[in-house]
Structures are given as structure tokens and as C-alpha cells.
Amino acid sequence: MSANQETAPKKIETSSYVVTDKYFGKPYIDRDEWRDRPVKHRHIHGGFDGTATRFTFYFPLQQYYRGRMFQPLEGAHAGHEDAFGGAMGEMLGGLEMMGHRLGGYMVESNSGHIGDDVDPRAGDDPTLYGYRASIETARFSKHVAAQVYGKAPLYSYVWGGSGGGRRSPLCFEYGADVYAGALPFMGGGNVEAHGTKSRVRSEAPICFGSMFNVQRLLSRDKKLDGVIDAMQPGGSGNPFSGLTLHEREELANLYRLGYPRGDEFMIAHPMGQMWLWTSIAELLLEEDPDYFKAFWTSPGYVGHDSPEHVTKDLIDVRRPVSRVLTAKDLLENPDFKGPEYGAVRVIAGLMAATSNNYGLPIAIEVKGIGAGHRQGAGVRIMSGKAAGRQLYAMEVCADLLFCDGRREANLLRFTDVAQGDEVHIDNRAFLAFCYSYRHHISADPMFDFLRINGEPIYPQHGLPLQSPLMGVPYSGQYEGKLMWVHHTHDSSLWPTQGVIYGQAVLNVQGPQRAAQQFCMRWTENAEHIAPAYMASSPTRATSTWLIDYMPIIEQSLVDLCDWAEKGIAPVETKFAFADGKVTLPPTASERGGIQPVVSVRANGSSRADVKVGAPVTLEVEGEAPPRAGTIIAVEWSFDGSGQFAAEAGIGGKSANVKLTTTHRYERPGVYFATARVTSHLEGDVKAQHRRLVNVASARIVVT
Question: For residue range 192-212, what is the model confidence (pLDDT) as tens digits?
């Protein structure tokens, strides 16, 4: 029976499959059916006996199959085997992209664990969650594909972003017989010798404490608004103006640690970074209790020596729960439709989409908390059925606390919590974490500013390790082709993380082999998620300074296939890295890669000061890099609203455009005129996919 038939599918034979990794028991299938969404496909779900590993295979109709398998890895800590088959997958291309457009079937695993909990038998073994569960799942999928399509895939690819970018290189490094290529994007982590069983070091999570600290310190008097303004196009370029000595020190330290310049708006709106704190806070408190005590009691720590920097933000109260809310409540209840709840709705939607569970209680309303810094605070259930459960505030809005936690707390959140149950809200651990980067430094050069003559300035504690669910350190040793894509404006995986893996490949494989096996691409003006799912400034839409990076990821997957299957080497992006900052060359010919390079000027500069009604001459230049196609669209948003209007006459014939237009502003204010330039490798102006975008803006001050 072929994959085109929609009657009851022929039962898949599993008994002859022999696992390669003997940890896994026999594979089983507990669901095998045809589904129409997101596209028609044969949907197979199962797992391996004696383990927590679960998988889902998605087999599109035979007519789309070109002998490929794609295995996307979920972000964060993973734990779900159906993330890419639902709303989350649709955000990242999903089965329509991998199945219909790229000619493969799709494989998902939960990376060996359910939710944020570990496999009870494996415990804290990071090799299982980092790669072994995914690799064995991929192997078994080929056994199944041979029965569904009549032949196993010729080429298999593993890819993923964020936590998926953390683990997909591990699958590639340890699954040489399984994959032909890998495409991690927005990954990061430290490097050790191949075969390590260590957990990943926590340099990046520890650095998030610095980001949280700047948010906390500069949000009090809206000073962060001035920092954001200074670093936007046409700003002063001096983010330190008006700050106190301590505020200047903390912002400078954040930049030294590698925070992306130009992305200061996201300091005020942490998302994945704050989730990571909620997921590892209990682990840090268990493994490094001395630090969290010393911060408040010992010389050399801010909490003891300079308590004025933290005491005004302290919270330590017990209050009753007024209301318990699910993701569905937050997304559908008209009480939460106002713009002040925008960030909460986004997070609720993203987290629910990942688990396909919109009924999970994820937030509580607690009145009378009082002053203090609520985001990041511990929330412990003190009474009722859920008494003893520890969560942390990932997002706050008015009296709402949107929380997550570790292991079982992640799975349950506020399940069994009722109105009137008492909670203890305490942010002492979070405030200590804000300065943790000073006291947990590694040999990485990014921490050199915290050393004098090689000796740390501040009392030190051992660098903590990440959850075992993040896998093991990279090695840079692999067979096949690997393309790494990183973003210049990613506030969750800073550009400093983007240079680590390439250096590891160079060190282990040598310059010649690295040039044949590794390709680095940078995406300019891209954050961790698409701007459609992010908060916007009241004065400037996020889409006027950030782009949706998924078309670049899809084109890079196409290029990876051509590289692995046809030997066509992809074009890499040139860059420089110094002082914790990645700098891209200013012209397309120098920069390379596949994204167009864009610049905008207002009256010949990055800033124009004009009177109401005066004409402003706006000029845009856009250029596609060599071998990266032609320009197929130019659009303007004159007022920063994110509403774009297309320029006429762009025919996809040229790799360069230079256009001039005039606009008048009829009201006083500050405006960001933004040009969005789109290229396509085939120059197809009607293309629906792989439309490669970049943006640039100029500031217009109207009086």
C-alpha cells in the first residue's frame, strides 16, 4: 500500500528493527493514521520500551518524496515529540516546508524526556537528551520510511534553533552514520573533546543575569528609554548619558559580555532568557547554595557591601491567590485584550503552541504584593493541594504572575492551585543572580575584564552547569556538511555564541577540512523569534528594525541539501569579531552570504531635523550579495508603524537598487522611516517562499 492511499495504512513492521544504542528497548507504534493538517500525511507516533523517549513521524504523500529526511529539534529543553506538527511548527515552516517544498518526511522526538523532567531510568545523563534519543529515533524512522515509501531516505538532515541549535550539532557529531548535513541556528555552548559526558557550562545563562540587572536598574526612572533612543538610528550613540556610576558600570559590563548593540529594546522585554532562569533557578540553588547566601552576608558582594542597589527592589510576602489562569484564558478572555497584556499573550501563545496544551494553568493573579521587582521572583505554593511546588515569575503584568519551573513544576505549573491558596513571593535569589556573572567566570576571554593579572576581581564560585537536558559540550568533530546560522540582534543567544562552533571546527579539523565541511552565515537584524511574536515600542513597530529570519533558514536548508548531495558549496558571510561584538562588512560584495544589504538616508544623513510639512528626501540603497540573486521588492514604512507600501517597478532583474522618494510629515514627532528590501535567488518577484529580507531606517525629527 503506497503513501498516496488514504485508506487504513498497512501496519508497520517493527520486530526486525535492531536498536544500535542498547539503552533503548524495542520500538513500538501506538498511533498510525492519516491526517489532513497541516498537510495531508501519514502520522505515526510511538516510542521505545523502557524509556521516556517518544517520537512522531510525518510522511507526506508519495508524490512529494525526494528521498530526504528532515529532523527538526525543538528549542529550549525540548521534551515534546509533536512541537513541529502544530502551531509552533507552522511558525518555523513545519511539514509544508520540509515535506512539500523540500521533498522529505519529518521526524520528531522528545529528546528522551517528557516535558522538563528527566527519564527516570537515565537520570541526569546529558548524552541521552543531547543526542542519543534523537539519533536512535532517526535510525528507526528510516526503517519505517522504507515501508511507507518503498525506500529509505538517501539523505538525512538534522536542524533546529535555540535549544535545537544547541543539540543538532551533537546529533551530527555522534550520528555520522545517520545524517548527511546539519543546520543549527542560534546555538551556543562550550567545547570539550569528542566523547565527553559532561554537562554544558553556564556562561551564557550566567550572563543573562547582567541583562536582567540592567533592566531592573534602568527601568526604575525610565532611563532604559534613553539607552534605547541613543542606540537607534540617528541617536546620539552614547547609551550612558544620564546614568549613575553603578548604572553605567552594569550597562558597560553587559556590552563587554557580548550583548548585541542596537538591540537594547529587548533588555526591557526578556523572553527566552527569563524562561531559562525559571527552569534552572532551583538547580542553581541546589548546586551553588554558598553563592546565594554569600551575596547577602559576605564582603565582596553587592548584597552585603552596597545593599542600596538591591534593597528597594526586595519582595518577601505571602498573599492569597485571587485567580488561576490558563493559556486559553489569556488568549481569549476580553479582560486581557489590552496592549498592556501583549507580552503575556505572546508568551502564553508560544508556550502553549510548543506543548499543544492551551488548558494548562500557567498564571495566577495575586493582589497586594506591593513594591519591588516582580519578574524573576520565586513563587512557592504554601497551601492547598499543590503545597510545596516552587515556580518562578517569567513574566508579570499588573497583578498577574506568569510562571514556570523545573521538572514536575514545569509539567504542572498551577495545576491543583485554587483561589485562596497562599503563595510566598520572594525575589532574593533572583536579585543575587543579577550579579552572578561577577562571581562565576570561566577562562573564556569575554570574562577578561573581570580579571587583573589573571586573577578575578571578585570572590569566585565554580561555574555552574546547565540542565542535563541541554546535552553535552560541542567538540567540532563530525563527518558531512554543517552550516551554522546566527543572528546579529539575538538577545537570547548573543553574537558571541555564534563564533564558538566555527573556531572549534577549525581547531579540531584544521583549516583545509574546516573550509570544506563548515559554513558560517550571519543574519542581520534578526532576533530570537520573528517580530510578529514580539512586543513593539509605542513609537516604533518591531517589524521596522527586525526581520523574520525563517526565509533565510529555508534557503539555507536548500543550500545545505545542494552542498551535501551535489557538492555545491554555499556562500558564507564574512565578519569581524572584537570586543564582544560581531561586525559585518558594509557592502554586499565584501559581506557575502545571501541576505541583501540595505542602507537608508534622510536628507543625506541618518537623521533629519525638519519643520512640519517640509519635504524630506529619503534614499534607499539595496544590494544582493554575489551568487545571491536579485532584488524583487522595496517597501517603505514612513512613520515607523510597520505598515509598508511597495515601490513600483522592481522587476527582479538587478542585484542593486537605489531609489529616492519624498515624504512630508504633518505632525510634530520622532519618526523612523524604514525601507524593507527583499531579494530572491531566482529573481522571482512572485515567489511566496525564500524571500530574503533586510531593513534599514533613518530618524526624522519633526517640530
Answer: 999 999 999 888 889 999 999
